[in-house]
Amino acid sequence: MVPVSVLDLAPVPLGSDVAQSLRHSLTLAQHAERWGYRRYWVAEHHNMPGIASAATSVVIGFLAAGTTSLRLGSGGIMLPNHAPLVIAEQFGTLEALYPGRIDLGLGRAPGTDQRTMRALRRDRHDTVDTFPQDVLELQAYFAGEGDPRIKAVPGDGAKIPIWLLGSSLYSAQLAAALGLPFAFAAHFAPDLLATALDLYRREFQPSATLPESYAMAAIPVYAADSDEEARHLFTSLQQAFLNLHRGVPGKLPAPADEMDALWSSAEAAGVRQAFKEAVVGSPTTVRRGINAFVERTRVDELMISAMIHAPAARLRSFEIVAEAMGLERLRSEDDMGM
Fold it and tell me: Which residues, including other chains, have CB under 8 Å from residue 273's CB and lie 6 or more apart?
């Protein structure tokens, strides 16, 4: 079995607030550490009332301070929203405080709508795609190989793994060319998963930091004591995605008893397509679904997400996955070099 990690979208449930959401994320991270998950990532999203991780590096620091060995990182930082020097300093600070525990996943999308994107980029008046150059500039700051008059302090010399994230072929190709690990966002945009993984593996160029390709995929996994209960929990994500597509994003809704009354047939088809890689069910169903996905995709690592309204049910979902997949045993084998 491959390592399994957590993608926490830091959901803000209806009836709750950001402070409570972040405290629940810390609780989940602490449990994930004990249960044997490999890493724990949070993502940069803006202008979304149902997601609490807009200040991603701040949230990573909060989670790292409350854990001891779990790898923490971004899944991802949306690099077009930031100057590479700022990200080098932020993650250099995190690495200085929590050495050997920080990952930096980078995305090319803005992580928001067009109006908010313009608000984030107050000094940017062009639409030129500088993502490849920004990644190289960021790498240079960490390596101390950029302009000798400009140092990332902290950050200069930091050994922080950089990942490229994406849901298309663009980042897969760039990750392959730069010899970086690649993570595919199959948790909401699975259509090009197989093509992107094949492209990445085929075109991968070994680098000083990564001699062989390393691919991860993120998928939704909703686990409960029964298939019926898990499907009920899953309706919160379906409603949230539906609201986002209707242009009315909000806090994470409570589960619905019946979805057919909430969406049209076309909307239902769109939501089901977006989450076609989701694994939803009892411990047995989840074990079979995850094993089938890993066997089909040959990913080196799996990352799972679960936007569940009730914090206790969210904890239970990740616990079931850990138990079903034997994550604590897998971690013990890794520690012994097996």
Answer: 191
